[in-house]
Amino acid sequence: MHMNLLFAIDDNVSTQLMTCLYSIVSNTPNETFDAYVIQKEKLAATDQIESFCQKVGVNYHPIIVDPKIFKDAPITDRYPETIYYRLLAHEYLPRDVHQILYLDVDILVLNSLKHLYEKDLGDKLYAAASHSDLTANMTEQFNKLRLGNYEAESYFNSGVLLMNIDAIRQKVKATDIFNYISANKLSLFLPDQDVLNALYGDQIVKIPDEIYNYDARMSAIYYAIGNGQWDLDWVIDNTVILHFCGRDKPWRKDYTTRYSGLYKHYAHKVSLLMN
User: Fold this and answer.
1) Is 19 strand, coil or helix?
2) Looking at domain 2-274, what is its CATH homologous superfamily?
3) Contact, 180 vs 198, CB < 8 A?
């Protein structure tokens, strides 16, 4: 099977991109991958990324964003143009891309992406996970009230998005996004995620977060929700996408919480491959 992957990065996280890709290739066997990497300008690490992708059998497609797309966008320090990259990916992906999986780079893939990628979205725009069970639904209710979208099933995390590009091309318009941000910018905490939920929350198929967007900060809560079953062994056997949400990142020297060793294992494999 062939999978399209989407990332949006700058030079600060090029190594993390390679670590994420290595985990995907290692744990999703017998697949071919095209990685589309959105960037504001050509990355300084381009040669290194291309060399790495060649070694692991990934087709690398850098996408330099046309700034004209954002000429009408509200852009400030808090709302840099990068917040629009995944929401407007359909504007600059090739026309023959019909479906793509967007991933943040602070992710490890521990098991095959095949079942997620093959999920039938029908005429829905996205598949995504919610972390609402981890916060006992209080945050979710607040977010629905704050964003005014009561039809959405949940408040969805935008770090993992299976995207139905054909449907998105018809329904997701840059002007709608720019207008929404202009009108609501004072109430937005996480601009791109808030826009996704406010405008398109009722067009998202919900997928289980313990499988497809496991928040690495919340292992104790997952353990409780899973009645003591969802321990480290369970995660390694069952979780597909482990997401290092928040400010504390596993590539930092001082990161010592659960799963730090797992991340360092994949990062080490990448460094061996590149040296």
Assistant:
1) helix
2) Spore Coat Polysaccharide Biosynthesis Protein SpsA; Chain A (3.90.550.10)
3) yes
**What gap in Å lies between CA 53 and CA 180, rounded to an integer?**
38
Work out the average pLDDT over 249-270: 92
* Residue from 133, 140, 155, 156 nearest 225 by CA: 133
Q: Distance (Å, rounded) from C-alpha 61 to C-alpha 169?
A: 20
d(CA 164, CA 121): 7
Strand segments (E) across 198-274: 204-207, 214-215, 241-243
Whole-structure pTM value:
0.91
Mean pLDDT rounded to a whole number for the chain:
88
Task: Quick: pLDDT tens for 180-230.
Answer: 888 887 677 777 888 899 899 999 999 999 999 999 988 878 778 877 788
- What are the φ/ψ torsions at residue 207 (nearest 5 degrees)? -120, 150
Residue 253 φ/ψ, nearest 5 degrees: -60, -35
Map tokens 């709302």 to a residue.
79
Q: Which residue has the tokens 């692991």?
A: 56
Q: The sheet that has 241-243: what strands, in order across it?
A: 107-109, 241-243, 214-215
- Token digits of residue 57: 């059998």
Predicted confidence at residue 150, as pLDDT, reads 44
206, 153 Cβ separation under 8 angstroms: yes
What's CA 175's distance to the chain center, in Å?
23
Angle, CA 209 vertex, CA 246 and CA 202 arms, to 5°? 100
pLDDT in tens, 150-161: 445 568 999 999
For residue 251, give the 3-state DSSP assignment. coil
The model's pLDDT over 9-32, given as tens digits with 9 standing for 90+, comes to 999 999 999 999 999 999 999 999
Query: CA-to-CA distance for 268 and 270, rounded, in angstroms?
Result: 5
